């Protein structure tokens, strides 16, 4: 991707940092012309993005972020103000003379590379933070990059939904306290954190959040500590020890109650999965009812999909009218979507999307089709035959127009085809075999493809190798046909 140098704005502090680094005394009024600056981005072949077919500018090819260690402070909950540091532990799969992160968030104040000040450039228009390492990052070596930032988060309007993806601000209103939470699919995380913002580079997260007196916080992973902070505030630390895509990171700040429930033995080898949900104050009492089914949902889905992939699971309920999102270990559930069917859907995404991650956004049906299919598996576990649901899907898929499953535009990402035709495609596969084989197929997909991101081609090859040519042909028809294939029948 070529970036125009004219859109690049230099951050004076980077010159200051460089001056300190090189031992040149900083002269803020007259920066020395001898101070080297970064060459224009267009001259940097190595700032090549990942090459996503829907979002061609996202990410950096060859960059592998292993861990994000976040230290965030929310001084005024309910506003768009955020400050903190992100420490990225990175590796490379090719030599990287420069680091290019996705970031359109608050102003960057300082960048350190392995503890030393590093020159950087924040390009607001391109949504990139470029950092010059002391020497190229070579494959197999690690570096630690610290980015300190403060200010207003960026805005990234969703192409379909009436919201900006990323850091949500819920202003205080009447009795209700201000709140913030993340809602980032597909590329909203870059509005508040410097990230390699693509699901093909999942990473672990340590999230430390400091909130003022009277507020609390939650995030993806397991809570490790809660400590006092100045002026009666608190600092809470969460550890997400399994890699997750950047968009799946949940962070919540507000006034809410944490409700712990008995752990559920659905982890690997029957290990316990911690159960906690977060309910904001002032929501209708009935909102909580759906969440009493969470343990049972985990058991039913783990039977079909294999062990739950993370050490904790639950929901964080939010008050704005937004769609639910499958944030890792902690689904983000609006009050208005607090029903069991949506909860089943988001819970299934913990396996499909959060654990098995996408190699390219064009394959998003691999998330949405599987999560929608889980709604049928749940209904059947409740004793329904599911015929109505399948017929209903078919009617809906036909009514709204259809397309091959691989998305070609941003607007197609979360359309009826991705969800409903995607689910019907899996049903078509199921009907070519018996349920024992289908269960092994679903479990094998999760266990075999957790280590690297997936494409539709991977699923087709996997289908042939596990269930045979008939199953693959059935899937291929649903993947490729411009028309809606006939309703699958056993
Ligand atoms: N993945 C979500 C679901 O089906 C839907 C979704 C896509 C979404 N983009 C979003 C939700 C942005 C909230 C915000 O479960
Ligand atoms: Zn979904």
Describe what you observe in this structure.
- This protein is α+β, with helices and mostly antiparallel strands.
- It is built from 9 helices and 20 strands.
- The strands form 5 sheets. Strands 5-4-8-2-1-11-14-13 form an 8-stranded mixed sheet. The protein has a 4-stranded antiparallel sheet with strand order 9-10-15-12, with no helix packed on it. A 3-stranded antiparallel sheet has the order 3-7-6, with no helix packed on it.
- β17, α2 and β18 form a beta-alpha-beta unit.
- The structure holds tryptophan and zinc ion.
- Its cofactor is Zn(2+).
- Zn(2+) binds at residues 345, 349, 368.
- It holds the Pfam family Peptidase_M1.
- Residues 329-461 form the Peptidase M1 membrane alanine aminopeptidase domain.
Brief write-up:
This protein is α+β, with helices and mostly antiparallel strands and 490 residues long. The protein is built from 9 helices and 20 strands. It has helices at residues 12-22, 294-305, 340-349, 365-381, 387-399, 416-430, 435-448, 456-467, 469-480; strands at 63-73, 81-92, 99-102, 107-113, 116-117, 120-123, 128-131, 143-152, 166-170, 179-183, 203-211, 216-219, 222-228, 234-244, 251-254, 256-264, 273-280, 312-313, 315-318, 331-334.
């Amino acid at each position: 991707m070529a970036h125009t140098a004219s859109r690049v704005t230099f951050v004076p502090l980077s010159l200051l940092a460089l001056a300190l680094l090189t031992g040149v005394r900083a002269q803020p009024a007259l920066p020395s012309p001898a101070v080297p600056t970064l060459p224009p981005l267009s001259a940097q072949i190595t700032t090549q993005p990942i090459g996503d077919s829907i979002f061609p500018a996202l990410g950096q090819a060859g960059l592998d972020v292993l861990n994000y260690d976040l230290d965030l402070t929310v001084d005024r909950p309910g506003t768009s103000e955020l400050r903190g540091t992100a420490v990225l532990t990175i590796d490379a799969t090719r030599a990287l003379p420069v680091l290019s992160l996705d970031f359109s968030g608050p102003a960057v104040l300082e960048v350190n590379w392995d503890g030393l000040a590093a020159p950087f450039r924040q390009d607001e228009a391109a949504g990139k933070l470029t950092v010059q390492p002391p020497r190229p990052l070579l494959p197999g070596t690690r570096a630690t990059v610290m980015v300190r930032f403060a200010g207003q988060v960026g805005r990234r309007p969703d192409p379909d939904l009436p919201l900006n993806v990323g850091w949500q601000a819920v202003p205080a209103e009447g009795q209700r306290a201000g709140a913030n939470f993340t809602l980032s699919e597909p590329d909203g995380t870059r509005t508040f954190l410097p990230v390699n913002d693509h699901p093909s580079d999942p990473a672990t997260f340590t999230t430390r959040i400091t909130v003022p007196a009277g507020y609390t916080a939650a995030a993806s992973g397991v809570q490790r500590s809660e400590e006092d902070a100045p002026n009666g505030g608190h600092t809470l630390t969460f550890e997400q020890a399994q890699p997750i895509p950047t968009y799946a990171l949940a962070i919540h700040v507000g006034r809410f109650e944490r409700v712990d429930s008995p752990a559920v033995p659905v982890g690997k080898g029957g290990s316990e999965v911690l159960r906690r949900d977060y309910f904001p104050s002032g929501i209708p009492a009935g909102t909580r009812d759906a969440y009493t089914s969470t343990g049972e949902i985990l058991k039913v889905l783990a039977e079909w999909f294999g062990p739950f992939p993370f050490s904790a699971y639950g929901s964080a309920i939010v008050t704005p009218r937004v769609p639910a999102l499958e944030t890792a270990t902690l689904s983000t559930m609006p009050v208005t979507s607090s029903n069991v069917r949506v909860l089943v859907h988001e819970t299934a995404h913990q396996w499909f999307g959060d654990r098995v991650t996408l190699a390219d956004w064009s394959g998003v049906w691999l998330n949405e089709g599987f999560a929608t299919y889980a709604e049928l598996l749940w209904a059947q576990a409740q004793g329904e035959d599911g015929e109505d649901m399948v017929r209903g899907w078919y009617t809906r898929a036909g009514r709204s127009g259809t397309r091959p499953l691989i998305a070609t535009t941003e607007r197609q990402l979360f359309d009826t085809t991705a969800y409903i035709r995607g689910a019907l495609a899996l049903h078509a596969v199921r009907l070519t075999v018996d349920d024992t084989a289908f269960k092994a197929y679903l479990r094998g997909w999760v266990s075999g493809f957790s280590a690297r991101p997936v494409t539709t081609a991977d699923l087709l090859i996997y289908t042939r190798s596990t269930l045979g040519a008939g199953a693959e042909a059935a899937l291929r028809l649903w993947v490729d046909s411009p028309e809606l294939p006939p309703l699958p029948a056993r």
